Amino acid sequence: VWDEHLGYLPSVLKVLNVPASSQMLVFSKTSFQRDRISPATPRAVFFNDDVYVGYVPGSPLLEFSMADPKLGGVFYGFENVRTNQPRFVRTDNCLECHAGAKTMGVPGHLIRSFATDERGVPDLLSGGELITHRTPLADRWGGWFVTGTHGSQTHRGNLIGTADLAQQHREPNFAGNKATLADLPPPFDTSRYLVPTSDIVALMVVEHQVHLHNFLTRLNYEATIQLKAYGHCNYIKSPLEAFLRYLLFVEETPLTSPISGSAEFAAAFMAGGPKDSRGRSLRELDLRTRLFRYPCSYLIQSESFQALPPELKTRIYHRLWSILTGEDTGKEWECLTPSDRQAIREILIETLPNLPSYWKL
To answer: How many CB atoms within 10 Å of residue 22?
Structure first.
């Protein structure tokens, strides 16, 4: 269905089950549509567990990508021009940036944080090449608009040009803790966007998600190669241990103040995914001292995880069981409390299909 103001965007989001409340606005010129992106016309990004959508007001093109269970990031264009037969067209142009060291050497996605000038041109020497749940909040969201409250914690969002960066140095958080886009200086027309937020919680969730998707793709590639070469994947130990540390949020940056964002996004996100018989879910948000209440990624329940070679999943399940039961007494797992381990174990037993029988004994 064509919308006179937003084109096919609302209808396509609905068909793909991508919540409008996941909207995040980026004004740094870091997309192939960089000529159309600026603080006056930021690019909106929407997402669910598997799909990402990009929209720039006035552009005749919507951007789409998905996390394919075996291929990794796959990219599409969709003409946002009224027509009788709108269609997706696969493109490889995005792989110039989305298939390299920053995406773990596989086609994937990434979040970056750079200082920009007044036009949104990023200073590529000013920030992080890769933002994940391990990145301190003070280093996140350069080049992004950010709505939501975060207490005394600082971030780099909402800072446009050298004057804002200098004022941030003098007055930390002068541009932070903004409930909606209306609370920001009015550099752009918010009526051209679906919702009045660029949600801080959505940003935190997607930063965790995109890197774990890349991890899953990398493990799938590695295991497939080793199985074909050797008939086993015994040489995948180091990447596997790194994956488990990320899956279980071992190196997550702790929150020092509560985070509060869009109630609509939080509700939509937590409503997805399976729950156990006590109503618990890996998607439950904490937002007081950490992102999630139960420190195990919800993507373990995703199609991308299930698509891993069975031999690799057998190794993952064995290591997870050892960690979650306390058999593995390594110091790297000390941040997981006994109650955390028990809750994660119980949730997975009820919600994760095809677990080995010893989990249920």
So the answer is: 28
What is the predicted pLDDT for the residue at 128? 63
Residue 102 host element (H or E):
none
CB-based contact 295:344 (threshold 8 Å): yes
Considering only CA atoms, which of 159, 160, 158, 164 is closest in space to residue 180?
158
Rounded (10°) CA dihedral 352, 354, 359, 361? 120
Going by the DSSP 8-state scheme, the letter that residue 255 receives in this structure is P
Q: How far apart are CA 175 and CA 267, in angstroms?
A: 26
Helix boundaries (H) for the chain: 9-15, 161-170, 200-230, 237-247, 263-271, 303-306, 310-324, 338-351, 357-360
Could you tell me the mean pLDDT of each successive run of 10 residues in the chain, 361 residues long? 92 96 96 92 97 96 95 94 88 80 90 94 81 96 97 96 95 95 87 96 98 97 96 93 98 98 98 96 98 98 96 97 96 96 98 94 81
Q: Label residues 215-233 b or e (16+ Cβ within 10 Å = b).
A: bbbbbbbbbeebbeeeeeb
CA 356, chain centre distance (Å): 29
CB crowding 111-122: b at 16 or more within 10 Å, else e: bbbbbbeeebbb
